Protein backbone atom coordinates (compact mmCIF):
# COMPACT_ATOMS: atom_id res chain seq x y z
CA UNK A 1 0.00 0.00 0.00
CA UNK A 2 1.55 3.30 -1.00
CA UNK A 3 1.01 6.45 0.99
CA UNK A 4 0.53 9.43 -1.29
CA UNK A 5 -1.26 11.98 0.85
CA UNK A 6 -4.03 9.60 1.91
CA UNK A 7 -4.55 7.10 4.67
CA UNK A 8 -6.25 3.74 4.31
CA UNK A 9 -9.68 3.37 5.88
CA UNK A 10 -10.99 -0.16 6.16
CA UNK A 11 -14.50 -1.24 7.10
CA UNK A 12 -15.01 -4.29 9.30
CA UNK A 13 -17.58 -6.84 8.33
CA UNK A 14 -18.27 -8.68 11.58
CA UNK A 15 -19.45 -8.13 15.14
CA UNK A 16 -18.78 -9.89 18.41
CA UNK A 17 -20.50 -13.16 19.20
CA UNK A 18 -23.64 -13.23 21.31
CA UNK A 19 -22.41 -15.55 24.02
CA UNK A 20 -20.42 -12.95 25.98
CA UNK A 21 -22.09 -11.98 29.24
CA UNK A 22 -22.48 -8.31 30.15
CA UNK A 23 -20.64 -7.27 33.30
CA UNK A 24 -21.97 -4.75 35.79
CA UNK A 25 -20.15 -1.44 36.22
CA UNK A 26 -17.21 -1.47 38.58
CA UNK A 27 -18.08 0.19 41.90
CA UNK A 28 -14.77 1.55 43.09
CA UNK A 29 -14.44 4.28 45.67
CA UNK A 30 -14.89 7.79 44.40
CA UNK A 31 -11.68 8.90 46.08
CA UNK A 32 -8.76 9.53 43.74
CA UNK A 33 -5.78 7.23 43.93
CA UNK A 34 -2.80 8.70 42.14
CA UNK A 35 0.70 7.72 41.21
CA UNK A 36 3.69 9.87 40.28
CA UNK A 37 5.26 9.37 36.88
CA UNK A 38 8.29 11.53 36.15
CA UNK A 39 7.01 14.16 38.54
CA UNK A 40 3.48 14.12 37.17
CA UNK A 41 0.31 12.82 38.79
CA UNK A 42 -1.78 10.20 37.01
CA UNK A 43 -5.05 8.64 38.08
CA UNK A 44 -4.53 4.93 38.67
CA UNK A 45 -8.04 3.82 39.62
CA UNK A 46 -11.70 4.68 39.33
CA UNK A 47 -12.87 8.14 40.39
CA UNK A 48 -16.51 7.12 40.56
CA UNK A 49 -17.16 8.32 37.03
CA UNK A 50 -17.41 5.44 34.57
CA UNK A 51 -19.30 7.03 31.65
CA UNK A 52 -17.47 9.03 29.01
CA UNK A 53 -18.18 10.57 25.63
CA UNK A 54 -14.97 9.18 24.13
CA UNK A 55 -12.64 6.57 25.60
CA UNK A 56 -9.14 6.25 24.15
CA UNK A 57 -7.59 2.80 24.58
CA UNK A 58 -3.80 2.95 24.73
CA UNK A 59 -1.54 5.21 26.77
CA UNK A 60 1.31 5.46 24.29
CA UNK A 61 2.42 8.61 22.54
CA UNK A 62 -0.15 8.40 19.71
CA UNK A 63 -3.11 7.66 22.00
CA UNK A 64 -2.14 10.40 24.46
CA UNK A 65 -1.51 12.97 21.73
CA UNK A 66 -4.90 12.15 20.16
CA UNK A 67 -6.66 12.34 23.54
CA UNK A 68 -5.06 15.70 24.26
CA UNK A 69 -6.01 17.08 20.83
CA UNK A 70 -9.62 15.90 21.11
CA UNK A 71 -10.02 17.51 24.52
CA UNK A 72 -8.48 20.79 23.34
CA UNK A 73 -11.02 20.87 20.51
CA UNK A 74 -13.98 19.69 22.61
CA UNK A 75 -13.46 20.78 26.24
CA UNK A 76 -17.12 20.11 27.02
CA UNK A 77 -16.75 16.37 26.37
CA UNK A 78 -15.88 13.76 29.00
CA UNK A 79 -12.79 11.85 27.84
CA UNK A 80 -10.74 9.05 29.38
CA UNK A 81 -7.59 7.11 28.48
CA UNK A 82 -7.22 3.44 29.43
CA UNK A 83 -3.69 2.04 29.78
CA UNK A 84 -2.95 -1.57 30.69
CA UNK A 85 0.41 -0.91 32.37
CA UNK A 86 1.16 0.85 35.66
CA UNK A 87 2.82 3.70 33.77
CA UNK A 88 2.11 5.51 30.54
CA UNK A 89 4.46 5.14 27.56
CA UNK A 90 5.74 1.78 28.82
CA UNK A 91 6.43 0.14 25.46
CA UNK A 92 7.22 1.62 22.03
CA UNK A 93 6.93 5.20 23.29
CA UNK A 94 9.49 4.54 26.01
CA UNK A 95 11.71 2.08 24.13
CA UNK A 96 12.99 3.91 21.06
CA UNK A 97 16.06 5.75 19.83
CA UNK A 98 14.76 9.15 20.95
CA UNK A 99 15.44 10.85 17.61
CA UNK A 100 13.41 13.82 16.35
CA UNK A 101 13.37 13.01 12.64
CA UNK A 102 13.38 15.71 9.97
CA UNK A 103 11.49 13.93 7.15
CA UNK A 104 14.24 13.07 4.68
CA UNK A 105 13.39 9.47 3.87
CA UNK A 106 9.75 9.62 2.84
CA UNK A 107 8.16 9.82 -0.60
CA UNK A 108 7.57 13.47 -1.61
CA UNK A 109 3.91 14.39 -1.35
CA UNK A 110 3.17 11.44 0.93
CA UNK A 111 1.27 11.68 4.18
CA UNK A 112 4.30 10.40 6.11
CA UNK A 113 6.50 13.15 4.70
CA UNK A 114 4.01 15.91 5.45
CA UNK A 115 3.25 14.68 8.96
CA UNK A 116 6.92 14.28 9.84
CA UNK A 117 7.95 17.76 8.68
CA UNK A 118 4.92 19.30 10.39
CA UNK A 119 5.37 17.09 13.47
CA UNK A 120 9.01 18.12 13.94
CA UNK A 121 8.06 21.80 14.19
CA UNK A 122 5.17 21.01 16.54
CA UNK A 123 7.41 18.80 18.69
CA UNK A 124 10.08 21.46 19.15
CA UNK A 125 7.44 24.07 20.00
CA UNK A 126 5.73 21.74 22.47
CA UNK A 127 9.03 20.99 24.19
CA UNK A 128 9.83 24.71 24.40
CA UNK A 129 6.39 25.55 25.79
CA UNK A 130 6.49 22.74 28.36
CA UNK A 131 10.15 22.95 29.43
CA UNK A 132 11.04 19.50 28.10
CA UNK A 133 14.77 19.30 27.35
CA UNK A 134 15.97 18.35 23.87
CA UNK A 135 19.08 18.79 21.76
CA UNK A 136 19.33 19.78 18.10
CA UNK A 137 22.47 17.74 17.58
CA UNK A 138 21.93 17.13 13.87
CA UNK A 139 22.42 14.00 11.81
CA UNK A 140 24.91 12.85 9.19
CA UNK A 141 23.77 10.23 6.68
CA UNK A 142 27.11 8.89 5.53
CA UNK A 143 28.08 7.22 2.26
CA UNK A 144 31.15 5.09 2.95
CA UNK A 145 31.87 4.24 -0.70
CA UNK A 146 31.21 5.58 -4.19
CA UNK A 147 28.41 3.08 -4.80
CA UNK A 148 26.26 4.73 -2.13
CA UNK A 149 26.60 8.30 -3.44
CA UNK A 150 23.75 8.16 -6.02
CA UNK A 151 21.35 6.94 -3.31
CA UNK A 152 22.60 9.67 -0.97
CA UNK A 153 22.01 12.36 -3.60
CA UNK A 154 18.49 11.04 -4.20
CA UNK A 155 17.87 11.35 -0.47
CA UNK A 156 19.00 14.97 -0.63
CA UNK A 157 16.59 15.67 -3.49
CA UNK A 158 13.79 13.92 -1.62
CA UNK A 159 14.45 15.96 1.52
CA UNK A 160 14.43 19.17 -0.51
CA UNK A 161 11.08 18.25 -2.05
CA UNK A 162 9.70 17.48 1.42
CA UNK A 163 10.66 20.92 2.70
CA UNK A 164 13.28 19.71 5.19
CA UNK A 165 15.21 22.74 6.42
CA UNK A 166 18.96 23.20 6.28
CA UNK A 167 19.91 20.11 4.28
CA UNK A 168 23.28 20.12 2.56
CA UNK A 169 25.70 17.65 1.03
CA UNK A 170 29.22 17.63 2.49
CA UNK A 171 32.46 16.00 1.40
CA UNK A 172 34.98 13.84 3.22
CA UNK A 173 36.92 16.76 4.68
CA UNK A 174 33.84 18.37 6.21
CA UNK A 175 32.68 14.99 7.54
CA UNK A 176 35.97 14.82 9.47
CA UNK A 177 35.48 18.36 10.76
CA UNK A 178 32.02 17.49 12.08
CA UNK A 179 32.79 13.92 13.18
CA UNK A 180 36.59 13.52 13.45
CA UNK A 181 36.44 9.74 13.92
CA UNK A 182 33.90 9.05 11.16
CA UNK A 183 34.94 7.70 7.77
CA UNK A 184 32.93 8.62 4.68
CA UNK A 185 33.27 9.91 1.13
CA UNK A 186 30.14 12.05 1.19
CA UNK A 187 27.33 12.78 3.63
CA UNK A 188 23.98 14.47 3.96
CA UNK A 189 23.92 16.93 6.86
CA UNK A 190 20.53 17.42 8.55
CA UNK A 191 21.09 20.09 11.23
CA UNK A 192 17.44 20.21 12.30
CA UNK A 193 17.42 16.59 13.50
CA UNK A 194 17.40 16.32 17.28
CA UNK A 195 17.02 14.04 20.26
CA UNK A 196 14.53 13.96 23.12
CA UNK A 197 13.12 11.50 25.65
CA UNK A 198 9.90 10.53 23.86
CA UNK A 199 8.64 8.73 26.94
CA UNK A 200 8.84 12.00 28.84
CA UNK A 201 7.05 13.80 26.01
CA UNK A 202 4.25 11.21 26.02
CA UNK A 203 3.81 11.52 29.78
CA UNK A 204 3.64 15.28 29.37
CA UNK A 205 0.79 14.81 26.88
CA UNK A 206 -0.95 12.71 29.54
CA UNK A 207 -0.39 15.33 32.21
CA UNK A 208 -1.70 18.06 29.92
CA UNK A 209 -4.75 15.92 29.12
CA UNK A 210 -5.52 15.51 32.82
CA UNK A 211 -4.98 19.17 33.60
CA UNK A 212 -7.64 19.97 31.00
CA UNK A 213 -10.15 17.63 32.62
CA UNK A 214 -9.41 14.26 31.04
CA UNK A 215 -9.04 11.10 33.11
CA UNK A 216 -6.33 8.45 32.86
CA UNK A 217 -6.91 4.91 34.13
CA UNK A 218 -3.78 2.78 34.43
CA UNK A 219 -3.70 -0.99 34.97
CA UNK A 220 -6.84 -1.32 32.81
CA UNK A 221 -6.19 -4.03 30.23
CA UNK A 222 -9.08 -4.32 27.81
CA UNK A 223 -10.58 -7.81 27.65
CA UNK A 224 -13.68 -7.09 25.58
CA UNK A 225 -15.97 -4.53 23.97
CA UNK A 226 -19.74 -4.97 24.28
CA UNK A 227 -22.86 -3.01 23.44
CA UNK A 228 -25.47 -2.15 26.06
CA UNK A 229 -28.95 -2.76 24.72
CA UNK A 230 -30.86 -1.40 27.69
CA UNK A 231 -30.34 0.69 30.82
CA UNK A 232 -28.57 -1.13 33.62
CA UNK A 233 -30.58 -1.12 36.85
CA UNK A 234 -31.84 2.32 37.74
CA UNK A 235 -29.19 4.03 35.65
CA UNK A 236 -30.72 5.51 32.50
CA UNK A 237 -27.22 6.25 31.17
CA UNK A 238 -27.08 2.74 29.70
CA UNK A 239 -28.55 3.95 26.41
CA UNK A 240 -26.53 7.18 26.30
CA UNK A 241 -23.26 5.25 26.72
CA UNK A 242 -23.92 2.05 24.75
CA UNK A 243 -20.35 0.70 24.55
CA UNK A 244 -19.09 -1.19 27.59
CA UNK A 245 -15.34 -1.73 27.85
CA UNK A 246 -14.50 -4.67 30.09
CA UNK A 247 -11.09 -5.00 31.72
CA UNK A 248 -9.18 -8.18 32.49
CA UNK A 249 -9.84 -7.54 36.20
CA UNK A 250 -13.60 -7.20 35.51
CA UNK A 251 -13.60 -3.42 35.87
CA UNK A 252 -15.86 -1.63 33.36
CA UNK A 253 -16.08 1.75 31.69
CA UNK A 254 -18.87 2.87 29.36
CA UNK A 255 -18.60 5.19 26.41
CA UNK A 256 -20.48 6.75 23.55
CA UNK A 257 -17.48 6.20 21.29
CA UNK A 258 -14.12 4.42 21.46
CA UNK A 259 -10.80 5.25 19.80
CA UNK A 260 -8.17 2.51 20.07
CA UNK A 261 -4.46 3.24 19.66
CA UNK A 262 -3.12 -0.12 20.77
CA UNK A 263 0.37 -0.15 19.27
CA UNK A 264 1.72 -3.68 19.60
CA UNK A 265 -1.82 -4.96 20.22
CA UNK A 266 -3.72 -2.84 17.70
CA UNK A 267 -4.72 -5.86 15.59
CA UNK A 268 -6.03 -7.81 18.59
CA UNK A 269 -8.01 -4.84 19.88
CA UNK A 270 -9.59 -4.46 16.44
CA UNK A 271 -10.45 -8.16 16.34
CA UNK A 272 -12.28 -7.82 19.68
CA UNK A 273 -14.80 -5.59 17.92
CA UNK A 274 -15.18 -7.91 14.94
CA UNK A 275 -12.56 -6.48 12.59
CA UNK A 276 -10.23 -8.42 10.33
CA UNK A 277 -6.93 -9.69 11.72
CA UNK A 278 -5.12 -8.07 8.77
CA UNK A 279 -2.94 -6.08 8.76
CA UNK A 280 -1.22 -8.28 11.31
CA UNK A 281 1.12 -6.78 13.87
CA UNK A 282 4.43 -8.60 14.05
CA UNK A 283 6.95 -7.52 16.67
CA UNK A 284 10.56 -6.94 15.65
CA UNK A 285 13.04 -6.51 18.46
CA UNK A 286 15.98 -4.16 18.09
CA UNK A 287 18.99 -4.67 20.37
CA UNK A 288 21.30 -1.73 21.02
CA UNK A 289 24.89 -1.63 22.17
CA UNK A 290 26.18 1.07 24.51
CA UNK A 291 29.42 2.91 23.91
CA UNK A 292 31.47 2.92 27.10
CA UNK A 293 31.67 6.41 28.69
CA UNK A 294 35.42 6.69 28.13
CA UNK A 295 34.84 6.10 24.40
CA UNK A 296 31.95 8.52 23.85
CA UNK A 297 34.37 11.03 22.31
CA UNK A 298 34.35 8.84 19.19
CA UNK A 299 30.91 10.13 18.15
CA UNK A 300 29.33 13.57 18.60
CA UNK A 301 25.91 13.37 16.95
CA UNK A 302 23.63 11.05 14.99
CA UNK A 303 25.46 9.04 12.32
CA UNK A 304 23.17 7.07 10.00
CA UNK A 305 23.74 4.79 7.00
CA UNK A 306 22.47 5.39 3.49
CA UNK A 307 19.35 3.17 3.30
CA UNK A 308 19.64 0.08 1.14
CA UNK A 309 16.32 -0.52 -0.68
CA UNK A 310 17.10 -4.25 -0.84
CA UNK A 311 16.61 -4.56 2.93
CA UNK A 312 13.37 -4.05 4.87
CA UNK A 313 14.94 -2.05 7.73
CA UNK A 314 17.30 0.91 7.94
CA UNK A 315 20.43 -0.61 9.47
CA UNK A 316 22.71 0.23 12.38
CA UNK A 317 23.41 3.80 13.42
CA UNK A 318 24.94 5.91 16.20
CA UNK A 319 22.46 7.76 18.40
CA UNK A 320 23.33 10.13 21.28
CA UNK A 321 20.91 10.16 24.21
CA UNK A 322 19.68 12.92 26.48
CA UNK A 323 21.51 11.33 29.44
CA UNK A 324 24.83 11.62 27.62
CA UNK A 325 25.10 7.96 26.64
CA UNK A 326 25.58 6.75 23.07
CA UNK A 327 23.44 3.96 21.59
CA UNK A 328 24.76 1.86 18.71
CA UNK A 329 22.47 -0.25 16.55
CA UNK A 330 19.91 -1.66 16.48
CA UNK A 331 19.60 -4.94 14.68
CA UNK A 332 16.10 -6.13 13.73
CA UNK A 333 14.97 -9.65 14.64
CA UNK A 334 11.60 -11.32 15.04
CA UNK A 335 10.39 -10.93 18.63
CA UNK A 336 8.94 -14.16 20.00
CA UNK A 337 7.02 -12.08 22.53
CA UNK A 338 5.28 -8.83 21.57
CA UNK A 339 6.61 -7.08 24.65
CA UNK A 340 9.77 -9.17 24.92
CA UNK A 341 12.81 -6.97 25.44
CA UNK A 342 15.26 -9.73 26.35
CA UNK A 343 17.09 -11.97 23.91
CA UNK A 344 15.33 -15.17 25.03
CA UNK A 345 11.87 -13.78 25.89
CA UNK A 346 9.17 -16.09 24.57
CA UNK A 347 5.37 -16.18 24.52
CA UNK A 348 3.65 -19.17 22.93
CA UNK A 349 0.54 -17.28 21.76
CA UNK A 350 2.58 -14.46 20.22
CA UNK A 351 4.93 -16.89 18.49
CA UNK A 352 2.19 -19.11 17.07
CA UNK A 353 0.25 -16.02 16.00
CA UNK A 354 3.25 -14.61 14.13
CA UNK A 355 4.54 -17.81 12.53
CA UNK A 356 1.03 -18.89 11.56
CA UNK A 357 0.56 -15.71 9.49
CA UNK A 358 1.36 -16.30 5.83
CA UNK A 359 2.44 -12.68 5.39
CA UNK A 360 5.33 -13.18 7.82
CA UNK A 361 6.33 -16.44 6.14
CA UNK A 362 6.47 -14.63 2.79
CA UNK A 363 8.57 -11.82 4.31
CA UNK A 364 10.98 -14.34 5.85
CA UNK A 365 11.26 -16.26 2.58
CA UNK A 366 12.10 -13.07 0.70
CA UNK A 367 14.62 -11.72 3.22
CA UNK A 368 15.89 -14.87 4.95
CA UNK A 369 19.56 -14.00 4.45
CA UNK A 370 19.03 -10.57 5.97
CA UNK A 371 17.14 -12.16 8.87
CA UNK A 372 19.86 -14.72 9.59
CA UNK A 373 22.48 -11.97 9.59
CA UNK A 374 20.44 -9.83 11.98
CA UNK A 375 19.88 -12.77 14.32
CA UNK A 376 23.60 -13.58 14.29
CA UNK A 377 24.48 -9.97 15.12
CA UNK A 378 22.01 -10.10 17.99
CA UNK A 379 23.99 -12.92 19.62
CA UNK A 380 27.45 -11.83 18.48
CA UNK A 381 28.55 -8.34 19.52
CA UNK A 382 31.65 -8.55 17.35
CA UNK A 383 29.49 -8.97 14.25
CA UNK A 384 27.44 -5.91 15.20
CA UNK A 385 30.58 -3.88 15.88
CA UNK A 386 31.94 -4.89 12.46
CA UNK A 387 28.93 -3.20 10.83
CA UNK A 388 29.51 -0.07 12.91
CA UNK A 389 33.22 0.02 12.02
CA UNK A 390 32.26 0.95 8.46
CA UNK A 391 31.57 4.42 9.87
CA UNK A 392 33.91 4.62 12.88
CA UNK A 393 36.92 2.37 12.14
CA UNK A 394 38.49 3.00 15.58
CA UNK A 395 35.59 1.27 17.33
CA UNK A 396 36.50 -2.01 19.05
CA UNK A 397 34.44 -4.77 20.66
CA UNK A 398 35.90 -3.89 24.05
CA UNK A 399 34.53 -0.34 23.64
CA UNK A 400 30.89 -1.45 23.89
CA UNK A 401 28.53 -3.25 26.24
CA UNK A 402 25.05 -4.64 25.70
CA UNK A 403 22.40 -1.98 25.96
CA UNK A 404 18.60 -1.72 25.98
CA UNK A 405 16.16 -3.16 23.47
CA UNK A 406 12.90 -2.07 21.92
CA UNK A 407 10.11 -3.88 20.08
CA UNK A 408 8.63 -2.29 16.98
CA UNK A 409 5.03 -2.98 15.98
CA UNK A 410 5.34 -3.72 12.28
CA UNK A 411 2.11 -4.07 10.33
CA UNK A 412 2.22 -6.71 7.59
CA UNK A 413 -0.25 -7.54 4.86
CA UNK A 414 -0.94 -11.07 3.61
CA UNK A 415 1.62 -10.72 0.81
CA UNK A 416 4.44 -10.06 3.28
CA UNK A 417 4.66 -6.36 2.48
CA UNK A 418 5.46 -3.88 5.24
CA UNK A 419 2.38 -1.66 5.56
CA UNK A 420 3.62 1.89 5.23
CA UNK A 421 0.26 3.66 5.35
CA UNK A 422 -1.84 4.88 8.22
CA UNK A 423 -4.63 2.33 8.59
CA UNK A 424 -7.91 3.07 10.36
CA UNK A 425 -10.57 0.41 10.87
CA UNK A 426 -14.25 1.15 11.12
CA UNK A 427 -17.08 -1.33 11.31
CA UNK A 428 -20.73 -2.16 10.80
CA UNK A 429 -23.49 -2.63 13.32
CA UNK A 430 -23.98 -0.80 16.60
CA UNK A 431 -20.57 -1.69 18.05
CA UNK A 432 -18.51 -1.07 14.92
CA UNK A 433 -20.21 2.24 14.20
CA UNK A 434 -19.01 3.55 17.55
CA UNK A 435 -15.37 2.47 17.30
CA UNK A 436 -12.33 3.73 15.43
CA UNK A 437 -9.14 1.67 15.49
CA UNK A 438 -5.75 3.12 14.60
CA UNK A 439 -4.36 -0.10 13.14
CA UNK A 440 -1.07 1.36 11.94
CA UNK A 441 0.74 4.60 12.71
CA UNK A 442 4.08 4.01 10.95
CA UNK A 443 7.46 5.37 11.96
CA UNK A 444 8.32 8.10 12.77
CA UNK A 445 5.12 8.21 14.85
CA UNK A 446 6.79 9.85 17.85
CA UNK A 447 8.16 12.79 15.83
CA UNK A 448 4.84 13.09 14.00
CA UNK A 449 2.65 12.49 17.08
CA UNK A 450 1.10 15.96 17.35
CA UNK A 451 0.48 16.11 13.60
CA UNK A 452 -0.94 12.57 13.65
CA UNK A 453 -3.17 13.60 16.56
CA UNK A 454 -4.72 16.34 14.44
CA UNK A 455 -5.43 13.85 11.66
CA UNK A 456 -6.93 11.32 14.10
CA UNK A 457 -9.05 14.03 15.73
CA UNK A 458 -10.37 15.04 12.30
CA UNK A 459 -11.31 11.43 11.58
CA UNK A 460 -12.95 10.98 14.99
CA UNK A 461 -14.99 14.14 14.45
CA UNK A 462 -16.09 13.04 11.00
CA UNK A 463 -16.94 9.46 11.95
CA UNK A 464 -18.70 10.23 15.23
CA UNK A 465 -20.06 13.67 14.26
CA UNK A 466 -18.78 15.29 17.46
TrEMBL record:
<comment type="similarity">
    <text>Belongs to the L2HGDH family.</text>
</comment>
<dbReference type="Pfam" id="PF01266">
    <property type="entry name" value="DAO"/>
</dbReference>
<dbReference type="InterPro" id="IPR006076">
    <property type="entry name" value="FAD-dep_OxRdtase"/>
</dbReference>
<keyword id="KW-0285">Flavoprotein</keyword>
<protein>
    <recommendedName>
        <fullName>L-2-hydroxyglutarate dehydrogenase, mitochondrial</fullName>
        <ecNumber>1.1.99.2</ecNumber>
    </recommendedName>
</protein>
<dbReference type="GO" id="GO:0047545">
    <property type="term" value="F:(S)-2-hydroxyglutarate dehydrogenase activity"/>
</dbReference>
<keyword id="KW-0560">Oxidoreductase</keyword>
<dbReference type="InterPro" id="IPR036188">
    <property type="entry name" value="FAD/NAD-bd_sf"/>
</dbReference>
<feature type="domain" description="FAD dependent oxidoreductase">
    <location>
        <begin position="53"/>
        <end position="458"/>
    </location>
</feature>
<keyword id="KW-0274">FAD</keyword>
Amino acid sequence: MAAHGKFVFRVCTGILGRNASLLKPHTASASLQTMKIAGRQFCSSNTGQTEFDVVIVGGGIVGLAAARELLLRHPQLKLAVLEKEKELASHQSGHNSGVIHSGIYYTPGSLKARLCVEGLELAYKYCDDNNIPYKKCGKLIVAVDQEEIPRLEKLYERGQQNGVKGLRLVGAEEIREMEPHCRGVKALDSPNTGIVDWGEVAKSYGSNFQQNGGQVFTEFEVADFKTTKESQGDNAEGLKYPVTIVGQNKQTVRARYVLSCGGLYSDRLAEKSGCSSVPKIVGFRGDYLLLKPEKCHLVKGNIYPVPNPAFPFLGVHFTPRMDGSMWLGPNAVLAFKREGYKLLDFNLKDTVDALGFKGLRKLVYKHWQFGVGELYRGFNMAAQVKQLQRYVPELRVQDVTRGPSGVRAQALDEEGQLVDDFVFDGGVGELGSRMLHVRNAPSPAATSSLAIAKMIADEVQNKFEL
